[in-house]
Design a protein that fits this description.
Layout: H1 2-14, H2 20-30, H3 35-45, H4 51-62, H5 69-76, H6 82-94, H7 101-107, H8 113-126, H9 133-142, H10 146-149, H11 157-163, H12 169-179, H13 187-194, H14 200-213, H15 219-225, H16 231-243, H17 250-254, H18 262-274, H19 281-286, H20 293-306, H21 312-315, H22 324-337, H23 345-349, H24 351-357, H25 363-375, H26 384-391, H27 396-407, H28 413-426, H29 432-437, H30 444-456, H31 464-475
Helix pairs in contact: 1-2, 2-4, 4-6, 5-6, 6-8, 7-8, 9-11, 11-12, 12-14, 13-14, 14-16, 15-16, 16-18, 18-20, 20-22, 24-25, 26-27, 27-28, 28-30, 30-31
């Protein structure tokens, strides 16, 4: 007994140390002593100046579910430290929680999200039924169930505003999204304030919500957001301004037509098209030569929305763009702007360029140019060598051979493949040397077509290497 008393005295002496870590250690050691001998000391330590010491007190009390512990825990549930309050509520919930229901309810409005969640969880476990929409909303927001909270209507506004102060960005983002769906008069102010949030995602959510609201008070703050270093924020801000139909946004938005991000350029063009910014026709037309096809597509659509016939001269050259969708959109835009655009002076001006494009190395451009010339009622230019062959009255088979031989050198692999196959069907042995050279063509389909034709001509490989090569090509069919 004397030894126990001396040990207890020594541990109690440590509780007076100026070092909070030593006081924490002493509290841990007190847990090994008789609870009735240390309860009063724990009560005093529950008011210690160091929050970690007070947390240690809660930890020791949690191991002794004694009636004497309750008053101390209730007091600590109102502690200045968020961590102490949260731990105390967790311990009280492990008791008969119904006795502390009022404490949990009052803690639903705590400044700490963690404390609010702990209180709401305890009440949920107790099967507590809120008595009003306000109480329901507070509980749902505390649990992070924002979708359920907004079902309570504007009663959810206050707790959601509190959630905007969360340290975790995605919780602020979710709270802001929920707020934007309420009809409360304070919604625009909350969204505008969120434009200054440190997190990109939160700012983007605020911008999207402001765009949906269409509140013109957001124009100036959104114009400021155009200068964000984050491309996604710039995209959202431009898109929002484009939907607000406010001419103040035209000039600031147009500054982003040369933005390094293709998505920003695309959205900027879309926005200017929505705003029907006629004075921006020339800058938008310049983007018809953009390196990104999506930007070109957006530019075609924007120019169409302008409804100004001056854009026709900019659009006509796009009918030979290498991208299919750009060409389709261009034809559609021209037809809507001027059903007889083919007869326009702008269309006639581009004819020489179209004819020149029929000789382009890219077969898509050649085909597009040919289609465009047909659309304009023009004769297609013919390769001079081919033309001379066709014009001369020769044997059809001989003419076909000469034409196919020329096409073997075409830039279009599809034409080379067709020519190689055609020579095989003509069964003219003179084609063997040329077909043999096509076994090394860069295009695999051309190589295979040449191998098939040589096989049809009963061609004999010069050596085993050549034999193995043609055998491999035939096996790939």
């Amino acid at each position: 007994m004397q030894e126990y008393t001396q040990m207890l005295w020594w541990k109690l002496l440590k509780l007076k140390s100026k070092d909070p870590k030593i006081r924490q250690l002493a509290i841990e050691q007190l847990a090994q002593c008789d609870y009735n001998d240390v309860i009063e000391h724990l009560k005093l330590l529950s008011k210690d100046s160091d929050s970690e010491v007070r947390c240690k007190v809660v930890e020791i009390l949690s191991k002794h579910q004694e009636p004497k512990s309750v008053p101390i825990l209730v007091s600590l549930a109102r502690d200045t430290s968020e961590k102490v309050r949260e731990l105390s509520l967790a311990v009280l919930a492990s008791y008969d929680g119904r006795k502390f229901q009022d404490i949990f309810i009052s803690s639903l409005k705590d400044s700490s999200a963690n404390v609010r969640w702990r209180a709401a969880k305890a009440l949920d476990d107790l099967g507590w039924i809120p008595s009003s929409d306000s109480e329901k909303a507070v509980k749902f927001v505390a649990l992070g169930e924002y979708e359920k909270a907004i079902e309570c209507g504007n009663a959810a506004m206050e707790p959601l505003l509190a959630a905007l102060k969360e340290n975790v960005y995605y919780k602020r983002q979710s709270a802001l999204e929920a707020i934007s769906r309420l009809s409360d008069a304070r919604v625009p102010k909350a969204l505008l304030s969120a434009l200054n949030d440190e997190d990109v995602g939160v700012r983007s959510t605020a911008i999207d919500a402001l765009a949906r609201l269409g509140d013109t008070r957001a124009v100036d703050p959104l114009i400021k957001a155009l200068k964000s270093t984050d491309a996604n924020v710039r995209v959202r801000a431009v898109d929002a301004l484009g939907k607000m139909d406010d001419v103040r946004a035209i000039e600031p938005i147009s500054q982003l037509l040369r933005d390094p991000s293709w998505e920003v350029r695309q959205t900027t063009v879309n926005a200017l098209g929505n705003l029907k910014a006629i004075k921006m026709i020339e800058p938008i037309a310049a983007l018809l030569k953009d390196c990104d096809p999506e930007v070109k597509e957006a530019s075609v659509k924007a120019l169409q929305k302008m409804g100004d016939l001056r854009v026709v001269e900019h659009l006509v050259p796009m009918i030979i763009d290498p991208h299919d969708n750009v060409r389709k959109l261009t034809y559609k835009a021209l037809s809507k702007l001027d059903p007889e655009w083919q007869k326009s002076e702008s269309a006639r001006k581009v004819i020489p360029e179209l004819k020149n494009s029929c000789k382009h190395h890219d077969h898509k451009i050649r085909q597009a140019a040919a289609n465009a010339l047909t659309e304009l009622g023009e004769d297609l230019p013919i390769n001079q060598t081919l033309a001379s062959l066709i014009e001369k009255p020769k044997n059809n088979k001989r003419t076909a051979y000469d034409v196919l031989l020329i096409l073997l050198d075409d830039a279009d692999p599809a034409l080379r493949m067709a020519a190689a196959e055609g020579l095989g069907r003509l069964a003219d042995k003179r084609a063997e040397p040329k077909l043999e050279s096509m076994l090394m063509d860069l295009n695999s389909w051309v190589r295979r077509a040449a191998a098939r034709s040589l096989s049809n001509l009963d061609w004999h490989p010069e050596d085993e290497i050549q034999k193995a090569r043609i055998s491999q090509l035939l096996d790939e069919q």
